[in-house]
């Protein structure tokens, strides 16, 4: 039997803290070689996009694949048992944004200075508030400076940060003004041009980038003491990789050795020490970590007797 689980049957089973705990477990498995990452897939048809994110958690005897047609449509994860390959559940997946916020928070927790207090938020889209909430769970934030090209959007985000997170926040007229002297810089944009320049960064800054692969300029990576990916397979093995991406140019020019870039699991496991200089964390928008969350929601829902059994025979 396959358990079918609607969004309403799983969405209350994981909050931001719970997602962070689940991802920390998944990254610990990554460090132990118990995670199987799979390159993301994408198909275009009739003007629509079909996205696939897959991965395995051999330590939990689970694997799965997430399918979606974009952030405005439902997303689903099919969960399988290993090594049998038996399908266990089809789980509605309302955790995409939470996964991103939790991943960024874990990166900040393990890479930013323990006493970091000043945050720059570059971008004011749907993930900005959640990213700042995640940062506030792992650091005592004293000040948030917000920049996005639209003055109304950045003013709205400032008001939300103050009202919902209880943090002091100000809007800035430029990205540089927000970034200079910030100890944590969170970048979440769709920009086709660099929005953050390495020359603006303090020598001990931490940068989290979850948006366009163009949003950081080459000097951010050149100046970094440590660059970390949530998954190198998910970050690098994409269908539409472009020479215009700064990290691709640097790797192909031999300036950046991609093989020596660690994954977050190694950092969380203590195999890579916290840097004293600039650090960069890149989140590649999911894969095995999506599967980990779907598995956690599936297991909890089954324990609570939720969902509908379906016999595919």
Structural key phrases:
34% helix; seven-stranded parallel sheet; 313 residues; alpha/beta
Could you characterize what this model shows?
This protein has 313 residues and is α/β, with parallel strands linked by helices. Helix content is 34%, strand content 24%. It has 11 helices and 15 strands. It has helices at 7-10, 16-31, 96-111, 128-138, 151-165, 175-179, 218-223, 232-236, 246-252, 264-268, 288-303, and strands spanning 2-5, 35-37, 41-45, 48-57, 62-68, 75-81, 87-92, 118-122, 143-147, 169-171, 184-187, 206-209, 226-229, 279-282, 308-310. The strands form 2 sheets. Strands 1, 2, 3, 4, 5, 6, 7 and 15 form an 8-stranded mixed beta sheet that branches. Strands 10-9-8-11-12-14-13 form a 7-stranded parallel beta sheet. A hairpin with a 5-residue loop joins β6 and β7 (87-92). α2 crosses α3 (96-111) and α3 (96-111) runs parallel beside α4 (128-138). The longest helix has 16 residues, at 16-31. It starts with a strand and ends with a strand. The model has no long low-confidence stretch (mean pLDDT 93).
Biggest β-sheet strands, sense, barrel: 8 strands, mixed
DSSP strand count:
15
Order of helices and strands: EHHEEEEEEHEHEHEHEEHEHHHEHE
Radius of gyration: 19 Å
What class, by secondary structure content?
Answer: alpha/beta
Question: What general outline do the C-alpha atoms trace?
Answer: globular
Tell me the layout of helices and strands.
Layout: E1 2-5, H1 7-10, H2 16-31, E2 35-37, E3 41-45, E4 48-57, E5 62-68, E6 75-81, E7 87-92, H3 96-111, E8 118-122, H4 128-138, E9 143-147, H5 151-165, E10 169-171, H6 175-179, E11 184-187, E12 206-209, H7 218-223, E13 226-229, H8 232-236, H9 246-252, H10 264-268, E14 279-282, H11 288-303, E15 308-310
Parallel strand pairs: 1-7, 8-9, 8-11, 9-10, 11-12, 12-14, 13-14
Antiparallel strand pairs: 1-15, 2-4, 3-4, 4-5, 5-6, 6-7
